[in-house]
Amino acid sequence: MATGTIISLALYFVVMLGIGLFAYRQTDTNVEGYMLGGRQLGPAVTALSAGASDMSGWMLMGLPGAMYVQGISAGWIAVGLVIGALANYLLVAPRLRVFTEVAKNSITIPDYFENRFADDSRALRIIASVVIVIFFTLYTSSGVVAGGKLFESSFGLSYEVGLYVTAGVVVAYTLIGGFMAVSMTDFVQGCIMFIALVMVPIVVVMELGGLNESVASLKNIDPALFQPFTNADTGEAITFIGVISLASWGIGYFGQPHIIVRFMAIRTVKDVKKARNIGMTWMIVSIIGALMTGLFGLAYVTGNNNSIDPETVFIYLSQILFHPLIGGFLLAAILAAIMSTISSQLLVTSSSLTSDFYQAFLRRNASDTELVIAGRVSVVVVALVAIYLAYDRDSTILELVSNAWAGFGAAFGPLVIFSLFKRNMTRRAALGGMIVGAVTVLIWLYFELGGWMYEIVPGFILSSITIIVLSKFGKPREGVEDTFDAFQQKMKEELH
Questions:
Q1: What broad class describes the main subcellular location of this protein (predicted)?
Q2: Fewer beta carbons within 10 angstroms: which end of the chain, N or C?
């Protein structure tokens, strides 16, 4: 590897670890400080942190790879994601920020569910925590897989070494600085990703002789690449159900703990609008860049008579078309995408293990110091399990992400939405909706029904129906409706 590339990557690692140390010195040592940053995130950090933790390695590897293989029909995923992210900012962000504070200053999503519905049985907390641990371990594994592929294809290291290096750096700064370190590194990583996803497709198009020449080259390869309702890889038509299935990725946003926890941590409700404007601009530009990288990358690779793993097209282009120093920066962008998501997922999972298992059932009177230590131990444990799962190289990054995304979207999405808008929602409805959503996704995956419809769709629908039906039988527990009224009153105060 060129010296310039090594220098760029070394500088990146130093900056990430330095941010972790800085956050450690700035953050309160109590549980709220470690797991939620003291609810002091500004709008810019909130927006880019949510975006970077959302997009992960699939933004620079999975999504360009899908575009490379399928053509613009893969763009339906992007359309759904943009709509879903906007709806998340409008419907969930301001309400969740206020309600989690009103509901006994809830720190985690399971904590919020328990306090929102006055669940003294703790069933909501336990099941929500189990869902988080199961699906986030899968999700974290997808990021580690991406890191392994990156180090193998770019650095000449073994896939296994790549797994440990990727996870090791993330674990280091997450252990040191907690939520604030994760959010601050996400902000820097989001900036790096943005620049890279603007730079790479522009340079590729210039190398191909301009936009017209690039499009002509792709049409010569396969005209189906520009047909939105045809999968260029298989030649099969994409039906209306198929479009809905691809675009349905967007509804998963309502239930992603590593994203919506940013809304819980933002400084004030009034900052949500600024965060939305920044976040949506970042997301739209970045997604377009990722799609164009895959599409025009195909023209460049084919024109040079090469054959590559589609999910490594960004890596290939960054090393072929740029000076080693710039190439190192672009590789750092991939690491940024990977690490930003892994760190968020590790922190949310460790928060759940610490607050929702350790403190709730083993050490109710544990001190803040003890809980922070437990959280750090949990980070290491989850990372090791994710590395173990990542040894299976057969699963693609996009496949691993899609499974975890569907699990959270179906189990938590309807529950979060209804909990924020339905005053008389009951504990039984919340529990039933969460279980039905998660089980539907697992059954769909087990019987391999994904070829017909993305599992998040039946999971989300059945979970919603369960919540609506069960809420008609029985009444909310004492104090639940009063808490909802207090939440609405505080919302009015915050907005005025």
A1: membrane
A2: C
The per-residue pLDDT for range 113-155, each reduced to its tens digit, is 999 999 988 889 888 888 888 777 777 787 788 788 778 877 7
State how far the Cα of 288 lies from the Cα of 197, in Å rounded to an integer: 8
What DSSP state is assigned to residue 266? Answer: B
Which residues, at least 6 apart from 194, have a Cβ–Cβ distance to it below 8 Å?
A: 282, 285, 286
Distance (Å, rounded) from C-alpha 114 to C-alpha 172? 31
211: part of which helix (H) or strand (E)? helix 211-221
Q: What's the confidence (pLDDT) of residue 33?
A: 53
User: Which backbone phi and psi does 45 adopt, to 5 degrees?
Assistant: -65, -40
Contact by Cβ (8 Å): 428, 480: no
Q: Measured in whole angstroms, how far is the alpha carbon of residue 329 from the centre of its chain?
A: 22
Q: Which amino acid makes up residue 449?
A: L
The predicted-structure confidence for 368-399, as pLDDT tens digits, reads as follows: 778 777 777 887 888 888 888 888 766 556 57
**Mean pLDDT, residues 425-447:** 92
Distances in whole angstroms, Cα of residue 389 to Cα of each of 136, 319, 343, 392, 395: 12, 29, 17, 6, 10
pLDDT for position 379 = 79
DSSP assignment of 367-399 equals -HHHHHHHHHHHHHHHHHHHHHHHT--SS-HHH
* 295, 378 Cβ separation under 8 angstroms: no
Cβ-defined contacts of 441-444 (< 8 Å, 24+): 441/403, 441/406, 441/407, 441/410, 441/411, 442/407, 444/406
- Written as one letter, the residue type at 447 is F
The CATH architecture one would assign to domain 3-392 is Up-down Bundle (1.20)
CA atoms within 13 A on the CB side of 392: 13
CB 209 within 8 A of CB 415: no
By C-alpha distance, which of 489, 395, 407, 401 is closest to 445?
Answer: 407
Tokens of 100: 């989690």
Amino acid at 257: P
The reported pLDDT for the residue numbered 163 is 86
Q: Are 208 and 293 in contact (CB under 8 A)?
A: no
Residue 230 in 3-state DSSP?
Answer: strand
Domain ranges across the chain? 3-392
DSSP character for 41? B
The conformation of residue 236, written as its DSSP 8-state character, comes to P
Q: How many residues does the chain have?
A: 496
